[in-house]
Amino acid sequence: MKAINLNQVIDHFNQGKVGLRGQELRFWFVERPSTPRDRMRMLLRRMREQHQVAHLLLIGHRGCGKSTELNKLIEEMQDDYLATTFNLMEVTGRTAVGYEDVMLAMATQVMRFCIDQRLVQRPLADTLNEGWRGVRDWWLQVIAGSPVRPGSSDFSSFAALNTLLGEIEVGVKQSSQTREQILSQVNQQMPELLRWLNFVIAEAQMALNPQRLLIVVEGLDKVDLESARNVFRDHAPTLTSVRATMIFTFPIPLRYSDDYQQVRSAFDGKVHVLHNFAPHHADGKDDGAGRAQLRRLVLARMEERLIAPDALDYLIEATGGVLAHLVQMMQNAVLYALDRQADAARIELIDMQRAVRELRDELSVNLSRQDWQILAARRRDRDPVLDAATQLLFYKNVLIEYSNDRAWCDVHPALWGLLEHYAPQVADDDA
User: Fold this and answer.
1) Residue 151 and which of 93, 163, 233, 328 are 20 to 30 A apart at CA?
2) How many CA atoms lie within 13 A of 332 on its CB side?
């Protein structure tokens, strides 16, 4: 399942936001030695065997491959758990969110999943199904007075309830007025939302036994930092009141903040870090193992003859181990190659250099003079210091954390050329 021409390379390096799945996951997945997946799997299996739940945080840079690792974990644990996964940013359509957004999205997504998977013991109209009718009536109360207009007036079936939940999601995503009104109701009635969500989860657990339900919430690593603090620092007790095993993606900038230990404690220390592939060591020397992994990742998807050796080396150097950037640069390099020559047989160094330059321009466009000063300092000392300005540079993906030696960081390699240009000015200012 390798690309045999450049047009296929574009398709093979287009995994989008969901990571590798299915056949692509089996053919293209590359293991990394520092993965926390084995520890997570052992913990989750132990929780299932003891009929307990766990709430886990998975920390990593945006684009480091968390979705693919989670997909691999889900595949490995399919005998133990039935997983429902959703991306908060796709459900809400926002990067600035509150904990009400998280809980609303979780409730609608989990309830719709349980209906779709037929994890329901009796029809909704069954006189013994009082609990699910309570769920339905609560949602009807929540939308009362809101702009949501259900397409059906007959809510005697699960299909109608499922449709209503979908209409709530669409209304909240598309209309600020709808969002404000429904989130106000959710905020005031959070104990009731938790009650009905946990009821649905308990019903699903009974239907699944001995499997358990696993809820994976992605996208929280990409929301703005104030939103992340609101969700993980201020409302962790609400998140951990959900009586199902859950995994949340967590933004790496908050790991370098005064709030981190408080969050870590709220989640009982069940925190796992997915580090980037490392092309270098902290002393600047090449990391042969990290480079070999990145090389395998590229060549798992395409025949080696489709890229010049110096172009592949240049890609591995420039990507910094951020997989989303590697995928982006491969796609752009192919487009540059085909623009250079319509029947180009392979990616040349000049094509990859242009692709890297495009990424460099994207990464640098929002950097201030102060940002360049901080980046120059981190390039010198490699220390991921604890301050708000450095957190923001992690968030912008221009500062990358590694763990192949001590915990250290470096400026994204695509920016090194510009950093050398700004460094003399930084030195003059410091003097």
Assistant:
1) 93
2) 17
